[in-house]
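Worked problem 6 (solution included).
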Amino acid sequence: MNKIKDDNSKNRILETATALFAQKGFEGTSIREICKNANVNLCMISYYWGGKQELYQGIIEDLLEKQIEYSKSFLDLNKNPKDMSIEECTDLLLKISEKFVEFFYTNISSDLIILLLKEQQKPDFIVKSPVLEYMKAIVARILNQDANSRLVIFKTLFMLSQVNSPRILPAFSLRALGQDDFCEEDIKIIKDNVKLYINAMIKDALTERDNNV
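Solution. The predicted structure is:
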């Protein structure tokens, strides 16, 4: 029972802190305000994270942990894409993209998106996601390129933008549709669009490869 209570308190702190940091920024948000809004004791911040900076970083780490845990249900990160065929990589990339859409539209709040967008502008902000690195390795295998090449980085980026652009550009999606949230039909359209991009990318890569043979 205590474990459940502790988990609930920790989750409330994370959700509250994410909302306040997104609205007011790091400097404009106090530990006292977070604890008051989350209805938890002030000492809980020290217990879980140590301080405000650690809590702020903990929000990002919590997202990555959830992403990794989620990916375990459909992905083996120990399987090297270099040992797979193009067809296997293609099927896996399509599966990952579909799962990414589901994760992004069910596990990431609007407040967290705002916080992440702000963090992206900081020159020292680096997110090391094993799942995203694995996706880059798959794209590299399909394109027959180094995983850190410009082509692979941008192709992966463009693919991810197909996933997240409707949420980071709500004026062109939700507000244009007159909705407060995305429905199942919207998510299906997003999935189909991502698949369309991936299939086009792979077709171009294979055509270029054949032309160079």
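Discussion: Residues 184-212 form the longest helix (29 residues).
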